[in-house]
């Protein structure tokens, strides 16, 4: 299935003329997006609680208001605070300040996809979701390079929601490389799938590899360097991004190419097992809403849950070996 891609020529920055954009949250994304919009000659105010991020926004020359004040001041409100606090902050501080015809912009589809935001019925709701950390969003804007970004219209009351979303995307530099038409459901599902299927499997592969190699009598230093401490995997992923999965094999030795391709063919059973597991995660945990209901349950102590999981993960011998190797320098 193909998706439409929007470029600078599809987006009109004049759509934002005379409309104040309130950037709520001056963290990783908020800092970058606020500065990019300002450099695109958009009127920006920042809404933030009284913390170090607020002080940073003041230092960077922005008018900084309380979150509730920013929501009232902005005709377009960018919601750039963590997923797990959005529902409460929106209900208590943002929704009451939104007026008819205003636009709420999310950078993560999570809370919209799982119905966790209680919003007035007379506001537009769109998504502009950079697929880059904030530092890269800022750096690539300054270089005019662009970066991957997903955009969607989740509710169009005014009939101009798409134009507003694309104007915001252009203002933060996303359409320079092409912003892809998507949905909050798609963005959230893909993000959660990477976090719950792909990366845990990578962790498990490293754990199993360490166990096998350590049992064979190889040193922790050599094993960890081979697996990831050398930084080689990052180089491989960079080449995959630049060249493609198979094309990047050309920069490996012939021995490496033969071994990788041979055992790829011999991994058909493993691929089938992973496909079944991943399908259960996608459908049974993510799309069903089961994970969202567990993670976003009212009053859930997210910090203690994460700490307990980290403590259990930290008991694997790979983690002890890594700490020892790092300590030895």
Automatic annotation (TrEMBL):
Pathway: Amino-acid biosynthesis; L-isoleucine biosynthesis; L-isoleucine from 2-oxobutanoate: step 2/4; Amino-acid biosynthesis; L-valine biosynthesis; L-valine from pyruvate: step 2/4. Mg(2+) 1 binds at residues 191, 195. One of its GO terms (molecular function) is ketol-acid reductoisomerase activity. Residues 1-182 form the KARI N-terminal Rossmann domain. The keyword Signal does not apply. It comes from the Bacteria. Mg(2+) 2 binds at residue 191. This is Ketol-acid reductoisomerase type 1.
